[in-house]
Amino acid sequence: MVNEAKQILSNFVSNIPPIVIGPDKVDYIAEHIHDIPNEHRLLLLQLLNYILETMVERQASDIELGGFGAQNYVWFRIFGRKERAVDMPQFTEDEASTLIISFLNNNQIKFLLENRNLDFSYTFFYKKINKNLRFRCDAYFDLDSLTLNMRAIQATIRPLESLEFHPFAVKTMSHNYIKFGLSLVTGITGSGKSTTLDAIIDYHNDFDPCHIVIIASPIEFVHHSRKSIIKHREVGRDVLSFKEGVVQSLRQDPDIIVIGEMRDPETILAALEVTDTGHKVFSTLHTSSAVESIDRIIAEVNPTEQERVRNRLADVLISVVSQKLVPSLDGKRVLAKEVLIVTPSVKAAIKNNNTSEIYMMINQGSQQGMITMEQDLLRLYTEKKISKENAVAYANNKTRILQLLKA
């Protein structure tokens, strides 16, 4: 199958006229992709699925395919390390562009060519484990040719207990304990934010008879309603934007609204508004500490709005979890996290624009379920899960971690 599919790609690209160069090549491939007979396109799909099966077998989190940077190789990220898979099929830039376009629908192709980027999800049935596998995908351009990142979405959810939150931190995130308010899960790309959010949703799904609306780009893990009824709305497919999804959700009788990412001022303001109306909201941000998350939200909006947003955020923010995946001594990765619970003192610090005081409040707030990133890295080091070097490397506050390690 692999050789046959490779031959189909090779034959197709050999027919691209020599006069078609640069960015016109991808346009040409998109225009002529339907010249490939359906039975041949099915083989191309099987080739892609074979690569993804191999990815899952090797416990890789991500795959890179196509574009100048790939240098004809397929690349896997395995336990944090991104390396070329030398035993996998190789693809020229044109072959990879053809393979990528071959499994997109017409609307997706049109959107990709217009916007030079496409976020979407992909699912296929993996017979070996008798399950559907889902992937979060991003197709984009790299020096005029198409490249694709695909991230494996876990087929099972980690239970919330396994993330080792303090019981009071779990309480604040529980809809049963606090019916409204904003809880954030933050971290850089690939730090496991979606995994934590899914664990929180699954936790509610076990006992809470409520309505959960998830707005994401794309939808990753698909939850099956048990105790809760759960609706999934993918941006670009089921709803036009995060902001639209948030505003529309108010008419959908939700109890919990999950916003995949607060990526622009409009979404931030909509999230604060919907929280103000008495809903429980969970969302994510690309920040590496709790204090930075608060500062980022305020800085994202127009300066004339900042005072109002600061006061609103202080009133609705319940908790912030900032997390990182740190290389562990067994060659895998382990979760390190900072947890902020918004106490009256934290609320006052946000309102008075004294966010620099919050780190010390987290540092001294262990009884309320708080922990700094440095305290959690020290815990992982003393439990012999991570090395001293990685405890220092992944700390936000290098001076503080060095003090803790000396103590």
TrEMBL record:
<dbReference type="InterPro" id="IPR050921">
    <property type="entry name" value="T4SS_GSP_E_ATPase"/>
</dbReference>
<dbReference type="InterPro" id="IPR001482">
    <property type="entry name" value="T2SS/T4SS_dom"/>
</dbReference>
<dbReference type="InterPro" id="IPR027417">
    <property type="entry name" value="P-loop_NTPase"/>
</dbReference>
<protein>
    <submittedName>
        <fullName>PilT/PilU family type 4a pilus ATPase</fullName>
    </submittedName>
</protein>
<dbReference type="GO" id="GO:0016887">
    <property type="term" value="F:ATP hydrolysis activity"/>
</dbReference>
<dbReference type="Pfam" id="PF00437">
    <property type="entry name" value="T2SSE"/>
</dbReference>
<comment type="similarity">
    <text>Belongs to the GSP E family.</text>
</comment>
<dbReference type="GO" id="GO:0005524">
    <property type="term" value="F:ATP binding"/>
</dbReference>
<dbReference type="InterPro" id="IPR006321">
    <property type="entry name" value="PilT/PilU"/>
</dbReference>
<feature type="domain" description="Bacterial type II secretion system protein E">
    <location>
        <begin position="250"/>
        <end position="264"/>
    </location>
</feature>
